[in-house]
Amino acid sequence: MSHILAYDFMRNAALAGTGIALAAGLAGYFVVLRNQVFTSDALGHVAFTSGLGALVGGVQLLAGVFGGTIAVALGMGGLGGRARGRDVAVGTVFAWVLGCGVLFLSLYSRGRSAAGGTAGVSLLFGSILGLRPAQAVTAAAAGVVISALLLLIARPLLFLSVDPDVAAARGVPATALSFGFLVLLGATVAEAVQAVGALLILGLLVMPAATAQRLTARPYLGLALSGVLAVLFVWAGLVLAFYLPYPASFLITTLAFATYLVSRWGWLW
Fold first, then answer.
1. What is the DSSP annotation of the chain?
2. Cα–Cα distance between 106 and 61 in angstroms, integer?
3. ∠ at Cα 214 (248, 251), nearest 5°?
4. What's the pLDDT tens digit per position in 106-164?
5. For 149-180, what is the HEC assignment?
């Protein structure tokens, strides 16, 4: 590890990846518990579209990604309540966002095809090994803040996620809490795009949480385990990417998927 961390780009990746993974693992636990996997997938594509829209409009990329993703997350929360209505709302927004992404990519690519292609690939698949020091510090700080806020609302959010009717009857502010979680989820997706990209964000959000929930039924232990697994997947993916000629995002999600398979079917062996 000392040899790997001797390189600036690996130190930046490890710093950013730790903050991003911790936030994704914690948020992902509630995503799986609340059956909002489709919402997370849609937000990944929103982050891609928002980033391209920011480039077209001359806005700072990260500001566009965060602003667009959080705004659409709140919009989806306001459109759908129960599971069926929520899925319809998310699917509607998803389709429109993908169309906007195609438009923005086309507009940005005109006259600067090389830059447009590079930006599009970076947003889709991540570029954690190409982060500058300022970007790494920003990503790590955002991850720590998001994680702290998630832990702050963890108790009432667990209650609301497991039994929403009883939680509302006991005075839990269901609407405010749900919207607050969507804001944090949108921010998590926006920052995680730097590590694994819009297409693979679902892996970092869902697979550590799904694995944790298969390993333990205790909510707080599962929440902690989900965060730890996400961080370990990112660290292991970065180490492998240092020695192997494969993208870090691919290795991170592959490790997460393999671990989930072991947790699901390992007992058969």
1. -TTGGGSHHHHHHHHHHHHHHHHHHHHHHHHHHTT-HHHHHHHHHHHHHHHHHHHHHT--HHHHHHHHHHHHHHHHHHH--SHHHHHHHHHHHHHHHHHHHHHHHHHHHTT-HHHHHHHHHHHHH--GGG--HHHHHHHHHHHHHHHHHHHHTHHHHHHHHH-HHHHHHTT--HHHHHHHHHHHHHHHHHHHHHHHHHHHHHHHHHHHHHHHHHH---HHHHHHHHHHHHHHHHHHHHHHHHHSSS-HHHHHHHHHHHHHHHHHHGGG-
2. 17
3. 10
4. 777 765 554 545 655 666 666 788 888 888 898 899 999 999 999 999 999 999 988 88
5. HHHHCHHHHHHHHHCHHHHHHCCCCHHHHHHH
CA Rg value for the chain: 18
Distance of alpha carbon 67 from alpha carbon 154, whole angstroms: 24
pLDDT of residue 79: 66
Cα–Cα distance for residue pair 32/121, rounded to 1 Å: 28
Chain Cα centroid distance, residue 176: 21
Three-point CA angle 217, 222, 226, nearest 5°: 145
Distance CA 83, CA 236 (A): 36
- Return the CATH number of the domain spanning residue range 4-261: 1.10.3470.10
pLDDT tens for 211-261 read 999 999 899 999 999 999 999 999 999 999 999 988 888 899 999 999 999
What φ, ψ does residue 177 adopt, rounded to 5°? -70, -40
pTM for the model stands at 0.86
Helix axes 174-215, 37-57, angle to 10 degrees: 110
Supply 98's token pair.
């993908």
